[in-house]
Amino acid sequence: MRIVVAGGGYAGLACLMELRRRMADAELILIDPGEDHLKITHLHETVRRPLRRFRRSYMELGKRIGFDHYRHALDCNKLADFAAESAIDIDGHRLSFDFLVIATGAKPPSLSKSAQVYDRDDLREQDAGDLVSLFLGDETRPRELSVVGGGPSGIQILFELADCIEASRQPIKLRLVDREAKLLGDYPSKLGDYVQDKLVSAGIEYLPQTEYVSSDEDTLQFRDVSTGENLVVQSGLTFLFPGVSPSPCALNSDRYGRVEGYESIFGAGDCARFDSRGDDQLTAQIAVRQGKLVAQNIDRVSRGVRLFEYYFKELGYVVSLGPLDAVGWLFLQDQIVSGLPAFAIKEVVEAQYDLFVAGLDTYII
Ligand SMILES: Cc1cc2nc3c(=O)[nH]c(=O)nc-3n(C[C@H](O)[C@H](O)[C@H](O)COP(=O)(O)OP(=O)(O)OC[C@H]3O[C@@H](n4cnc5c(N)ncnc54)[C@H](O)[C@@H]3O)c2cc1C
Ligand 1: distance of its center to the CA of 10 in Å? Predict the structure, then answer.
């Protein structure tokens, strides 16, 4: 039996590992345009740590777990053809499959941006710390640094930057720009309040209800979403984190993970929305659970037994605020944790994933 997994992020890797555990004889193939699995939940930490620390090569993982990796980007618009032929084309070669899993994640929107503006995909290739060092060393650039996006990723990188700027002792103005009226609006309100207090105490300018439009060399153009007025600010270095959406296409999975309309194609992680009772936000903990569930169900389909439904409920969510602070909820949405205890929880969650990638599965649910 041959199973092809497209996308080697959290969902895809979890799926491959669970498939190998359950189906020792299956031929497993990963297709991903990159060479490495990236622990992208650490991306903001590349302000102070090298990116390579968060990469694991697919070649090394493939040897250990038992899969082959082809560098290729799957074209999701051809799902009907793939299903009809039980095969995909990779650079002119035909690759047949019994099951196909799509776990291609989500991407930021492609906004117009100039040289000193970087988004999530730029940071997959470049250390944020190097970009900050270049900026700090170039006094011809405006002494202002901006982060666009008041969701968890934007906030996490903002406070890493704040810490780094403070250590540099240079008089750099920091700014957070967000389209929404309130920070972390999708989470319990105490989280946004905690972050807002921290912005004030760190002297960071906060522009809510302000939408990024474009950038020139040293300036950013914004629009006030309530009044429609335009705003121009100076910025010598800018990070864009305006959110992500499923990529290259959004899939609808049924409660077992099968992509609607196809028996042999499954979807998991940020690219797939599950029609089920389980939580379905775009997070790594959910991507891992969906990837594992899809693997379980492929094993069960191939043995002709009843499939498992996806019903995972998030155990908590913690946003880090620099190297030693964090805020989030644990087990219940009104159970808020902050400061060092929250930071410690975040570290434990990341360590659990590190163990998982290293081959030790400690996820009990
Ligand atoms: C800075 C940052 C911090 C975050 N912090 C947290 C956190 O603390 N906790 C949390 O739970 N979540 C966090 N998230 C969200 C979390 O990272 C995502 O929800 C998670 O990565 C989704 O996993 P995935 O496998 O669906 O996609 P990804 O991990 O994005 O992996 C997708 C993979 O698919 C590949 N791919 C893309 N297109 C194709 C194609 N056409 N064909 C084949 N392969 C393709 C990519 O190369 C990539 O390897 C954070 C995200 C960011 C950016």
Answer: 6
pTM attached to this predicted model: 0.95
- Tell me the β-bridge partners of 228: none
Residue 112 lies in a domain: no
pLDDT of 103 reads 98
Average pLDDT, rounded, for the chain: 95
Measured CA to CA, the distance from residue 256 to residue 278 in angstroms comes to 11
Q: Is 217 exposed, middle or buried (0-12, 13-18, 19+ CB in 10 A)?
A: exposed
Give the DSSP per-residue string, 209-238: SEEEEEE-SSEEEEEETTT--EEEEE-SEE
User: CATH no. for residue 138?
Assistant: 3.50.50.60
| Position 363, amino acid | Y
Kindly give the distance from the C-alpha atom of residue 146 to the centroid of ligand 1, in angstroms, as a whole number: 23
Sorted by sequence, the CB contacts under 8 Å of residue 150 that are 6+ apart come out as 176, 177, 178, 179, 180, 183, 184, 208
- The predicted pLDDT at position 365 comes to 65
Whether 137 and 236 map to the same domain: the answer is yes
Atom of ligand 1 nearest to the CA of 285: 11
Calculate how far, in angstroms, residue 195's C-alpha sits from the geometric centre of ligand 1. Answer: 24
